[in-house]
Write a structure and sequence with these properties.
Blueprint lengths: L2 H8 L10 H11 L6 E5 L5 H9 L4 E6 L2 H10 L7 E5 L9 E6 L8 H8 L3 E14 L6 H6 L7 E2 H10 L2 E9 L2 H20 L3 H19 L5 E9 L1
Parallel strand pairs: 1-2, 1-4, 2-3, 4-5, 5-6
Antiparallel strand pairs: 5-8, 7-8
Helix pairs in contact: 1-9, 2-3, 8-9
Length: 239
């Protein structure tokens, strides 16, 4: 895929994956994060969850990191109203300094692998630190063809038991889990649909048009089986 064309589509989206502020609030409650906690949004995208973390935890100090520089810049601009307690920069979530009371990693840990990512995060946590992450999950039973096609580019996808095994292999234990399904995906795809329409109205190159078609295919696959396509949001702590 042409990266420049890909980011032409994604440049002005409010999110880079399914989710909603309620997911962030739930994870904070499970993790017991409060007060002047130190938090990292690892793989922050354009900062939707960074903003939610800052709003729900008004005394917390938050670092936001993303490999894509323009996303880090978008997060910085989006969270400027929070002042110096929110900082965003371009960097790898595998090389965080810490220590953090909570590492939030929505829809990005699979870039490292669940086990490998959690192992990398361990030295970055405080003694009571927790990790909240979301990971693609199969819901069990016979999967419709739309679900198989949707996850075709992620052959490592597994079910909830498989994710639990990867968590255990990293030396962590789960505190609680929650499905990210339905409305949080609409919150991602509806703005993408509007962005696709706006770009087409302006006229686009062949490379961008190819990315737009891929986006439309992805959205159509999701709309065929929205009750079967999900992430599992997990809050875990080292054992």
């Amino acid at each position: 895929m042409d990266k420049e064309a890909f980011f032409t589509l994604h440049r002005e989206l409010p999110r880079e994956g399914p989710g909603c502020p309620e997911d962030v609030l739930w994870a904070i409650g499970v993790a017991g994060t409060h007060g002047e906690a130190r938090i990292c949004d690892a793989g922050c995208g354009p900062g939707a969850d960074t903003e939610a973390l800052a709003e729900y935890l008004p005394e917390a100090w938050i670092d936001a990191v993303d490999l894509h520089g323009p996303f880090a810049e978008a997060t910085s601009a989006r969270c400027a109203r929070f002042g110096p307690r929110v900082k965003a920069w371009q960097g790898s979530m595998a090389d965080l300094a810490g220590p953090y009371d909570l590492i939030w990693c929505a829809g990005a840990l699979y870039f490292l692998g669940v086990t490998e990512g959690l192992e990398a995060f361990r030295p970055m946590l405080t003694r009571a630190g927790r990790v909240a992450f979301s990971e693609p999950v199969l819901l069990g039973g016979a999967e419709p063809r739309a679900v198989q096609d949707f996850w075709a580019e992620y052959p490592a996808i597994t079910d909830e038991a498989g994710i639990a095994a990867r968590i255990a292999a990293a030396g962590y234990r789960p505190l609680d889990t929650r499905l990210v399904i339905g409305a949080p995906w609409e919150a991602y795809y509806a703005p993408m649909e509007r962005r696709i329409a706006a770009l087409r109205a302006e006229g686009v190159s062949d490379a961008v048009e190819a990315v737009l078609r891929e986006g439309e295919t992805e959205i159509a696959q999701w709309r065929t089986a929205p009750e079967r396509i999900a992430y599992l949001l997990c809050v875990v702590e080292p054992e």
